[in-house]
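Appendix B, example 12.
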Amino acid sequence: MPNRKRGVKTLPALVLASALGIAAALLLCQLLWAESGKRRIQSLAHTVLLHSESVAGNVSDAVAALERSALTGCSDTDLAEMKRLTFEYRFIKDAGLFNPDGTIVCSALWGRLRSPFHVGAPTLKTRNGLLLWIRTPSYSIPGRSIDINGTPRVFVVTSPTAFASFENGAPELSVQVTSSGGRVLMRHFGRIEPGGDQLSRREVRACSQRFDICVTAQIDSNIFSPAYNGMLVLAGTLGAILGAVLWAVLVSLFHRNKTLSAKLTAAIESDEISLLYQPIIMAASGQLMGFEALARWRDKDLGEIQPDLFIGKAAELGLSTVLNRSIVCRALRECAARLKQDPHLYLSINLEIDALLDQSIVQLLLSETGRHGIAPRQIAIEILEGSTIEISRMQAGIDEVRRLGFQVFIDDFGTGYSGLAYLGRLNVDKIKIDRIFTQAAGTESAAAMILLKIFEVAKDVDTGVVFEGVETAAQMRAILAFCPDALAQGWLYSKAVPLAEIAPAYQASLSG
């Protein structure tokens, strides 16, 4: 009965997830459809711009030819020359002369006008020096309008069929040909509308480098029409399936997260968090100097859980202190015999700076080292550089722990918020340089330059350096070239292993 009730409760959520999946799929289809339309208008805008440049070049050449011709007025010889030029240029319908007062007196097709025709002020003066009259009243046929290009002395009329090939385009497409500033509309095809539906409308603008011409192409492409019903049904079905799958995944993750929290709480309380150890080596000699304790958790149902995941989850659950105490006690218990056997070795334990400032953790370190007969100097506490705690409080905590005889390292140095200035202000025993910089050793990268700078500052403040993440002999050779007494930690020597597998020395081959 409880399972049936749960199924009834989850059914609306499943329906909602499927509906959201359908909506998302249809929205995605529309966006993709609109973007495919954008590619169409990019091609269209480019084509119209090239044609507009061809027309403008043809018109400009015709005006220049008229200016160069020996026209003195409207004689038969002058009119014959105008006709010749009119027929020579493809996009020219007519050509003629202006009076000094700006009136038209004659043209190639209409000869001498009965009375001078005043065209008014030009619409635009282009950067090429041409005067343009856009859709000005015709001097030949009353009620008509024409486009005139010219100079104060001569003019040509653009052929009305110059853009005929673009006049019967697809209904969803529209094009404007304007001046470069967009103030003057020279040609338009289709219906241009400002704004509009952002889901279906796309717009592309292209401008000429030679002439005062820009082309704006627009498409209003909507997939929600009967012509695309099959596509919409398929997209909706896939969306519903994906929505249901996503819902199932989220439910699974939610329950897994609850399970993870419960299992981790039980594992910490039962002291089931185990430790592996990674050796820290004197690179030049291969001598073992210490080892870092690394927490591990393997659950019988969930399998191996990544440390970042379960340590972060412990913080969320408020179990960090309990986990830290468990790790400290286990590490000192497991390493006591090895540390007493070899007094020059040290054990490093990762703690957040908050834990370092926690007197209960400090007292636990003191009591556990005393109980196991371990010298405090054989314990190194690694803290992360990127703490947001005020540096004066941090230094006070570090000084107190060092006064008690423990060492303090800064872990993952170089990735925190404070940089090199941080190192000069904190009195620590060693810094552990993050693997990002270690693995750049011997390269020409910016990280390699930062690595050298970190080492120089560490040397100036008399702080030891451990290079983390050493994986290749080439990296180690490059490090030894500028830091002969380097300490190293990484897979070149050993992965994290049980304490019993840590050898007293590691002879990594650095030749070749």
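The chain is about 45% helix and 25% strand. The mean pLDDT is 83.
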